[in-house]
Every structure is written in C-alpha cells, then in structure tokens.
Amino acid sequence: MRLSALVKTLLAAVVAGAMAGTAGAQSVLNVASGGSQNMVDYVTDYLGPLFESRNSRWKVRVVGTGPGDAGSQAILEKLAAQVGSDAWDTDVVVINQLKTTEMVESGLLSTYRSEIGTGSLATRDTVRLALGTDVDGYVMPMFHSQTAIAYNPDLVPTPPASFDELKAWVEAHPGAFGYNGIKNGMSGVAFTAAWMYAYAGNTDQIMNGPYDPAIKDTWDQALADLRAFNEHVSFTPGNAGTLDMLNRGEIVMGPVWVDMFHTWQADGRLAPNLKLTLPEPGMPGQPYYYAIPTKAANRDAAKAFIELATSPEVQAEGIVNRFNWYPGIDAEHVQDALDPQVWTKIFLDVTPQDLASKGKPFPLGPFFTEIKEAYEQKVSN
C-alpha cells in the first residue's frame, strides 16, 4: 500500500514517541487526533497532563493529522498499513464521523464502550449511528458541535420558530438574513442540509439510509424554493464572515456554529446581546469520536484515557468551560460539575431538550454529496 506523505510523517512521529518511552521510565500512550489544532492542544495542554497525573507510569503523546476528512483519512491509512501486525502503535484515535464509518466497516476499530464506566452516560443517536452506519460500541463522542441561527434580539424580538416562519421573515426583510451557501464554511452547508430536512421529504432516510439514488429526483421543489429564498438573503464569505456581518449589523440573522458563537462573545469579538435559536425541525451538528484501534498495543490504558476524557468533570471543564463545545456525554451529567453561570451561558438559548429533539446529524454520505451537487446545479446557478 502506498502511503501519503502525511501518513509517513504520522508513522515517524509515533515511532519516535515509542522510542522515547522505551528510553525512560514511562510507557507511552499514543494518541492520533484529526480535527483542528485546538483539539490537539486540548490533549497536549489539558487532557494528557491530567491523565499522566493520575497514572504516573504513562506519558501521553499526541500527533495531529489535520482537520476535515483529510485528517481522519490519514489516521485510517496509518491503521490500514499495520493490518497483519500483532500490535499496532496507535492506542487512541480522534476521528470524524465519515471516516469512523469507513474504519468500522474495514475492521480497523474495536468495540469498547460497554467496558468503560462512562459508556452509559452518552445516549444520543450519534453514539449508535454515524451517517447511517452502525457504530454502536465502537465510539464515545469527544464533544458535539451544533449549528443554530444567531440573531439580534433588538431587531428580531421574536425569532422564527420554524423554517416556515423563517421563509416568511426573510421575504419580509430582504438582505437581513445571511449565510455562505455551501462555500467556505460548514455553517452554510448545515443550513442547506436543514432546509432539505424541512422540505425535501424522506428526512429519516436522508439522515440514516438506506441510500436510494432515486430519492434525489424528488428534490426539485425544495431546491426551487431554496433558490427563491436565496433571492432575499445576503451571502457571507464563510463561518467567520457570517459572525462578522452580524456583529457589524450588516445582517441581523444567520446560521453559525454554536461553539464559535460563544467563543467570539467571550473574546469580545461579538456583541453580547446577540442570541441563538434552533428552529423546527432542527439543524445538523456532528461529534468527533474517541475510538480504539483493533490491535492497539495499550488497550487497557486507552480505555482508561477515554473513560477519563468522557467523565462529567472533564467534559465540564475541558469541553464546555474551555472550548464552548457541547459535551459528548448527555448534558445533564455535566450540570453539577459546571459553574451555574457557564451552564446558563451555554444552554440558555439552545437547551439540552432542544439538542435532543432538534439536533440532527448530517446526511448519509451519498445523499450529502448529492445535496451539495444539486445546490451547485439548481440553486446557485
């Protein structure tokens, strides 16, 4: 199998870590993390040292592989390259939903959730299904990201409670709603997926399968309505661009990532009066997952690491308090471990009940591709 340059770099880093562990008194727990740099920093600066302080014989070494599908694909390739070996040199992986499904289907991950004490604390459908694939037992969510509609309550005292109400509001207030279409940011892609959930029909099948290519032939009206909707909106340059335009008052409503919204407010980059709403029937979000490779050399330590990472105290401090992510475990389990002010800030507008009923997954992979292609062909042209 020919390895990409990124996978070769990842292999070299893990081997170097293993050699360093052999030279010292500690054993090395090797973690490979896809996702943004702040996810790698989270393990390096917080979670890893916490695990080491409670398990003195272990040293945690994390290697980042990058965001998006490419970062998780590098981990997949690395594990696939070790098939046939008795013990693999990666103990914990942090991966996105799409590549998790491929790793499970390829036999590269092992089941472990029932073997850790925190396994029962996560009950959302994302623990069992990833883009329609059964991943039950193979994963624990590190966190949940979520999209919602941000708005200025001084100008929109009663925000739209549904997509039907949003359509009517946008038509009555041309240019005041903004999103980035499907270019330069996933907040606009998520809004597009939510539109299809609201109007395309076959919503459960689009989310969970089974895949049927004929389904896309039923989308013409939903896409035509979205094209008409777009005639009344402002287009933004991406995730950050939507927030910037909201902050400057160039728009008064638009889809955003909730964690990014709260982080910008905490940093003073976003007006403190802006609020969030999650309209019916809901909008997508996604987790990153902790998983254990099939032949991880240090399986018991890997389970202990993930159990700590998904404990209420760590989910409260590390995931919610530090990064404004929604917890990977069910929200009620972190409430007692959070400062009441932090709980109120994170869950005031979008409650745990909202997340449970209106937090949706992204579409099944083939449907997702077809939705984006259909947008390009029938909405943006």
Summed up, the helix count is 15
Give the terminus-to-terminus CA distance.
41 Å
**Radius of gyration, Cα only, in angstroms?**
21 Å
Q: Which structural class do you get from the secondary structure elements? A: alpha/beta
Give the uncertain stretches in residue-range form: 19-23
Secondary structure blueprint with pairings:
Elements: H1 5-23, E1 27-34, H2 37-54, E2 58-66, H3 68-81, E3 92-95, H4 97-105, E4 109-110, E5 129-130, E6 133-134, E7 140-151, H5 163-172, E8 178-179, H6 186-199, H7 203-208, H8 220-230, E9 234-235, H9 239-248, E10 253-257, H10 258-266, E11 275-277, E12 283-293, H11 299-309, H12 312-323, E13 326-327, H13 340-347, H14 352-358, E14 359-360, H15 365-378
Parallel strand pairs: 1-2, 1-3, 8-9, 12-14
Antiparallel strand pairs: 3-12, 4-12, 5-6, 7-10, 7-11, 7-12, 7-13
Helix pairs in contact: 1-3, 3-4, 6-8, 6-15
What does this 3D model show about the protein?
The protein has 15 helices and 14 strands. The chain is of the alpha/beta class. Helix 6 (186-199) crosses helix 15. The protein is 45% helix and 17% strand. It has two domains: 5-144 and 287-344, 3-Layer(aba) Sandwich (D-Maltodextrin-Binding Protein, domain 2); 145-285 and 359-378, D-Maltodextrin-Binding Protein, domain 2, CATH 3.40.190.10. The radius of gyration is 21 Å and the shape is globular. The strands form three sheets. Strands 1, 2, 3, 4, 7, 10, 11, 12, 13 and 14 form a ten-stranded mixed sheet that branches. The chain has a two-stranded antiparallel sheet with strand order 5-6.
